[in-house]
Each structure stands twice: as structure tokens, then as C-alpha cells.
Amino acid sequence: MTVHGLFAAKSSAAAGLSSRPEIAIIGRGFSGIMMAIALMKSVRVSFHLTMYDPHPSISGGQALSSPQSTEILNSRVRDLSVAAGQPDDFNDWLCANGEFRAAVPAAIPGFQQIFVPKGIFSDYVHQRFSEALARRSDITVKFSHEPVHALRKLATGRFTLVRDGGTDESDVVVLATGFGVRSRNVEISDEERPVVRARRLVDPRHAVLLGSGIRVVNQLFQMRDGGYAGTITLLSRHGFLPQSHTRLSAAPSFPVDPMPSTLREIVRFVRKACADAEAKGQSWQSAMNGLRRRARSLWQALPAREKRQFNRHLRAIYDSHRNRLPAAVHARLQQELAEGRTVLRCGWAGRRVPEGLMVRWSGQPAEELLRADQVIDCRCSAPDMQAPLFQSLFVGGLAMPDELELGLAVSPTGEVLGSSGRTPNLFAIGPLGVGSLPDIDLVPEIVTQTYAAARLIAAGKRMALKAG
Ligand SMILES: Cc1cc2nc3c(=O)[nH]c(=O)nc-3n(C[C@H](O)[C@H](O)[C@H](O)COP(=O)(O)OP(=O)(O)OC[C@H]3O[C@@H](n4cnc5c(N)ncnc54)[C@H](O)[C@@H]3O)c2cc1C
């Protein structure tokens, strides 16, 4: 059964039930879909759900929809369950999938340690979504294909959502807009620019990929697998490419001693924890996995000045150690670099020009032209706090930026913090909380946050029904 078909049937069959609480989710990426699953499993009263996103149906945002669904995810199966309290759920789903078992026969005792293509994870999430919906004949779900531009709170406590074609009202709103509405990735199309077409006749091809994270690696191999034989430059400010996962299990392990309180001492502590893990026959990766469990309290205890320092000087290194590549993918990347077909360079990307890109190389005072017939932006930017939707929240005092101004100020349970504390019935899930909560852009943290938010909504709606 497809999710889309199920939706159509469900929506029309249950239409016209107007006394139920209304919940709006803005964004149908992984965070939005995950929030819908958590709500359907946690909120026992009937409700209307509307999911807004200009992208088609349940595209799944950047994590689940991609031209290349064969890309390997960089998390192991054991870390990708979408069922609360059931860490084996994704593994069980894979075990029950005959086709997958046939393709990957070495499943003893299961698939927990392996890495799977994005398309498989996407199928799993969509199936769990469909199943959750199929069990709830008492709720209605509507898709809107319009972006939401503004949100206001009414005197009644409800929200008005302003979209292209009009307004809607809702009792609860969940912001799940992640990295924003996606724009086209290829900034300079060589088919459109005569100067580039002319140069192609004499020059070998050269593409520049901006960024140094997982997306760059995915893009690089997508191009190579598609037959691109030219040189590829990976351009980033710091030049830290993702590290490798270990072939060991890397179960989280970290010293239980109290952590120091300054950034400098914390870095020293983490380095020692990694070295000790290696000395004990474990891996630095298991220490990093252990660190993630303590990251939230560590982050909250750091003064704003040190958080800014971390962002400026250490985040790129931290990201390269937490967002790791499966060992085989990492080896392929090293091979590319060793052969010289792909080069990694540090510098600041400036404006695009028809001949390529203006770049200020690290340590150089002035920009110079980097000739390229393609420039592809693979950087993972923070959510855009200038977007009209967020500006409307700031103006209304419903939300405020976090202290680093990377995203919204949110609680671990996803409640949005405004000028007078928590804004009742307004939630922000996933990367929107990137300045408030470490690792909130990763699947396990998003899953935990959605269930926590759903429990709060469930409690609130029960009370509302009793009162009403
Ligand atoms: C290629 C890739 C691989 C990844 N691999 C892993 C992994 O292996 N393990 C892991 O833990 N994490 C992984 N992640 C990270 C994690 O899954 C992401 O943080 C996740 O994609 C965030 O999802 P999201 O829904 O919050 O944001 P997005 O994917 O950015 O989706 C946001 C959605 O909101 C919509 N939207 C935006 N603004 C509006 C608006 N105003 N109105 C209506 N709709 C709007 C957008 O159109 C979009 O569809 C990966 C991410 C990517 C991109």
C-alpha cells in the first residue's frame, strides 16, 4: 500500500469532523514525518493533522528524498529506529524484508552493524508512517502543498498560519522546516552559459564542490558513478573531511568522571578519552559515541562566549568525527584524493562568475578566480532565521533565536522559547534547534525529541478535552 493512496482514502473518509483538535506540522522532511508518526502513536484523542510543504507529497526532505537513493547512510542500522523504546525496530523491519535478506545474506545475528542505502531507510520510515496512520481511523490527515510564510497567535490561543492561498487556524503548530525550502543545487549550469560552453572545447572539465561534509562525499561519488571524469575540487573553509567508522561495533563508552568546565580542558579530556579507548582495544569512535550522550549537559553548561569559540574553531573538527563514513566509502574517498583526480583545498567561496568562482585561499589576502564549469553547493547551512516565517514569530514574541543565532531557542522536548518563556502549543523539531541542542540534526536525537513533544501535546489535548 502506498502512503499517498492511503492518505487520499483516509482524508476523504473522515472529512467533516470539526470538533477535534487541529495540529499543523510545517515541513514534511524526516522531522515532519517523524513528528506525525509520534503524534499518531502518542495522542490518544482524535485530531486533525495538516502537513505543509511545497515539495510533493511525503518527499522526506533532504534526508529521505534524493536523486540518488542508493547513497549509503552514514549511521548504522542500530541507530536508525523510529520506534520509541524499540532500538531493534529497523533491524526487525530489515529481517522481515525477504528481498533485503536475499541481497544481504550475512545477517547473524542481525543487521544492526551495517550501513544501508538511503532508499531503504526511506522505505522503512514511510512504511512505519503508513502503518501508524492505518491504525488510526479516527484521525484525518491533509496535505497542503503551500509553504507557510507567517504564524500568529490569536487571542483564543489558537494560531493563524499564513500560506500562499489564504490562512488556516490550528491549536498546535510544529515547526519542522529543517534547512529550509530547497533550491536548485547547481548554481552555474554549463548548458546555459555560452562562455562555459566555449571553454569546454579547449579545457578539461573541472567541477567545484563547496563544503566538506557527508553531502560533498555523496555528490562526489554521484558524479563519478554518473561518468564524470574531470577534476573535482572540494573547497571548504577548514578542510576537515568526514572520518571513517570503525569496523568494530563502537558501542558508546566514555569516562564517568566529572567533565571539566572550560572548552580547552574539555578538548583535552575528550582527546584523552579517545586515546584511552584505543589503548584498551576499543576505538576512538566508541569514545565519540559515548561523548554524544553527555553532549547536551556539556553544551548547556558552557558560557555563550565558549560556545561561539567552539562554533568558530572546533565545530568542523567535531562534525568530521561524529558524521562518519562507512569504512568502504572512506577508503574510496582516500583513493580519489590519492589519485589526484579530486583535490581538497581550504578557502572562502566568494561570488559566482561565468568562468567559475571567486575564492580567497586560506592565508591569502585577496580573492582570485577559480575556473570551473560547474559549482555545486553541498554546504549544510544553518536554518535561515531571516525567513519570513521566523521573522513573524520574532515580531510576535512567540520565538527568539538561540544565543548563537544559529536557530530557534528550544527546549529538549521541542518547546519553542519566546520572549516570555515557553510558547504554549508551539514546537520546533530537529535542526531548527541546532544552536540550543547538540546533535539535534541527527536521526536518534530527532526521534527522541518528536516522542517527547508528542507526549506533551497528548497531555495538553487530554486536559483541553476535559476542560471543554
Ligand atoms: C544526505 C543526508 C544524509 C544523512 N544521513 C544521516 C545519517 O546517516 N544519520 C543521521 O543520523 N542523520 C543523517 N542525516 C541528517 C538528518 O537526517 C537530517 O538532519 C534531517 O534530514 C533533518 O530533516 P528535517 O526534516 O528537519 O529537514 P529537511 O530535510 O531540511 O526538511 C525540511 C522540509 O521543510 C520544508 N519547508 C521548509 N520551509 C517551509 C515552509 N516555510 N513551509 C512549508 N514547508 C517548509 C522543506 O521543503 C523540506 O521538505 C542526513 C542528512 C542528509 C541531508
UniProtKB/TrEMBL annotation:
Show the InterPro entries listed in the entry: FAD/NAD-bd_sf, HpyO/CreE_NAD-binding, L-asp_N-monooxygenase_NS-form
SUPFAM superfamilies in the cross-refs: FAD/NAD(P)-binding domain
User: In what residue span(s) does the FAD-dependent urate hydroxylase HpyO/Asp monooxygenase CreE-like FAD/NAD(P)-binding domain sit?
Assistant: 24-179
Q: What is this protein called?
A: FAD-dependent urate hydroxylase HpyO/Asp monooxygenase CreE-like FAD/NAD(P)-binding domain-containing protein
